[in-house]
Specification:
Largest sheet: 9 strands, mixed
Strand order of the largest sheet: 1-5-6-14-13-12-7-11-10
CATH class of the largest domain: Alpha Beta
Oligomer: single chain
Number of strands: 14
Shape: globular
Radius of gyration: 22 Å
Number of helices: 17
Distance between the termini: 22 Å
Mean pLDDT: 83
CATH topology of the largest domain: BirA Bifunctional Protein, domain 2
CATH architecture of the largest domain: 2-Layer Sandwich
Low-confidence stretches: 378-385
Number of domains: 2
Length: 385
C-alpha cells in the first residue's frame, strides 16, 4: 500500500498533523529528492543499506528521502530562521528498501529546534508522541526510553584515550560491536591480524592527514567507491581509527567492569535514577549533570500527566541512529500485534554541527509510522476530521 493510499483511506494522519500545527508546530514539506551524503554520514547502518541512491553525474549522489528529520533540518538551516527557535511538523512518504513490503511508506512527526529549556522540550515531545497512538485507539502504549547523554557522561568521566572515547560513543547503538571493543580494550596492544599489524602501527604513528589521503588513494586505485553506503573518505577514516586503536594501551579490567555495570541498569525512571546515583557514588564518577537532567525530565513527564511508572527505562536502550545525543524513546503495541515501533524519536543536539552549522542548536523530535498505526485496526479508519 502506497503512502498516498494510506492517506486516502485514513484521514486521521492529516488530523494528527493538524493537531500538531494547532500546538504551534508549523507544517512543512521537504523535497522528496535529497542529497545522499548527509544520510550516508549520519544515519544508522540499517537506513544506509536500504536507501534508494541515484547517481547525479559527478555532482554528488542523490537519494529518495529515507526519513524526514534530516530534510527538515536542512531546510531549516537554509531558511532565514536558522538558529532561531522553530517548531515544525510534517506528513509525507519516505523511501526504504523493505523485503516483502512497499519501499514507500508514510511518516508523520515533528521537530523542535533551538529551544533552550531542553528537559521541557523533551517532555513535550513524549507527550505529543503519545497523542499519536491515542488518536489510533491505543491509549497506553509500551514506552521504552533511554538517554545517550548518560553514556556520553560516563565515557567522559572515565580515564580513556580520546580515540577510545570516540569509538565507544559510536558503538552505543551497536551493542555486539561494543562488546567486542570492550574485549579489545582489555587485551594488550598489537592484537590485530598479524599479516598487517605492522602497517597499522606505521599508520598510527604517521601524520593523520597524509595517512588518510594515502588510504583513500589506495581504495580509489582498487576501484572501491563505497562499502555499505560509506564513502572512500569514511572508509579511510575508519581504517585509520582501527590503526590508532591497535596502537593504544590496554584498558584496566575495572574500567570494563564499570561500563558493563552501567549497561545493566534498567527499570522505572525512578529506580534507574537511584541505581545510577549509587553507581556513580561508588565508582567516584561525576555524572551529576546528566543525572540531574534525567530527574528533571521525568518530573516534567509526570507533570504532563504521564504515568512514569509505565516507562521502561534502560541505560543500554538506543535507536540505531548516529545523531542522537540525549533522551531516546519508542512507543510499541503492548499486545505485540505490530512488529516494530509505532512512534520513535529523541534529542539530537549534535546534528546541526555535523551538517556544517558553526553554532550548536538544540533539537528534539519524533517520527510516527502511520501504516503501523493503521494496521492496529483500532478506531474508525477514514473518519473525517
Amino acid at each position: 500500500m502506497s503512502a498516498a493510499t494510506i492517506i486516502g483511506k485514513d484521514a486521521r494522519a492529516d488530523a494528527l498533523v493538524a493537531s500538531y500545527a494547532g500546538a504551534g508546530y508549523a507544517r512543512v514539506e521537504p523535497a522528496i529528492l535529497q542529497p545522499a551524503e548527509p544520510f550516508l554520514a549520519l544515519s544508522g547502518e540499517d537506513i544506509r543499506r536500504r536507501m534508494y541512491l541515484i547517481a547525479d553525474g559527478g555532482a554528488g549522489d542523490l537519494c529518495l528521502r529515507p526519513d524526514l528529520t534530516i530534510p527538515v533540518a536542512l531546510d531549516y538551516l537554509a531558511s532565514p530562521d536558522a538558529g532561531k527557535p522553530a517548531r515544525l511538523s510534517y506528513l509525507g512518504p519516505v523511501f526504504r528498501q523493505r523485503a516483502g513490503a512497499s519501499g514507500e511508506f508514510l511518516q508523520a512527526g515533528l521537530e523542535s529546534f533551538g529551544r533552550p529549556d531542553k528537559a521541557a522540550a523533551d517532555a513535550e515531545a513524549v507527550a505529543l508522541a503519545l497523542e499519536a497512538t491515542a488518536l489510533y485507539g491505543l491509549a497506553a502504549p509500551d514506552i521504552r526510553m533511554g538517554d545517550v547523554g548518560l553514556f556520553a557522561a560516563l565515557i567522559a568521566a572515565l580515564d580513556l584515550p580520546p580515540v577510545w572515547r570516540r569509538r565507544l560513543a559510536k558503538d552505543f547503538n551497536r551493542k555486539s560491536v561494543l562488546a567486542e571493543d570492550l574485549h579489545r580494550l582489555t587485551e594488550p596492544p598489537g592484537n590485530g591480524p598479524p599479516e598487517y599489524q605492522g602497517v597499522l602501527t606505521a599508520l598510527a604513528n604517521s601524520d593523520p592527514k597524509g595517512a588518510r589521503a594515502l588510504v583513500a588513494d589506495l581504495l580509489s586505485i582498487a576501484g572501491i567507491t563505497t562499502v555499505g553506503g560509506r564513502s572512500v573518505a569514511e572508509i579511510a577514516a575508519r581504517f585509520l581509527e582501527q590503526a590508532e586503536l591497535g596502537a593504544g594501551a590496554a584498558l584496566p579490567g575495572e574500567v570494563r567492569d564499570l561500563v558493563e555495570r552501567f549497561f545493566a541498569v534498567a527499570g522505572t525512571p525512578a529506580d534507574a535514577a537511584a541505581a545510577l546515583r549509587s553507581f556513580a557514588a561508588e565508582a567516584k564518577l561525576d555524572l551529576a549533570a546528566a543525572l540531574d537532567t534525567l530527574d528533571e525530565r521525568h518530573r516534567l513527564l509526570a507533570a504532563a500527566g504521564i504515568d512514569t511508572a509505565r516507562i521502561r527505562f534502560a541505560t543500554g536502550f538506543g535507536r540505531g541512529l548516529d545523531y542522537y545525543t540525549g533522551v531516546v524513546f519508542e512507543l510499541h503495541d503492548p499486545a505485540g500485534r505490530i512488529d516494530g515501533q509505532l512512534v520513535a524519536g529523541g534529542r539530537y543536539d549534535g546534528l546541526f554541527a555535523r551538517l556544517g552549522q558553526p553554532e550548536p542548536i538544540a533539537a528534539v523530535g519524533f517520527s510516527v509510522w502511520i501504516e503501523r498505526l493503521v494496521a492496529l485496526g483500532a478506531g474508525p479508519a477514514g473518519e473525517a476530521r
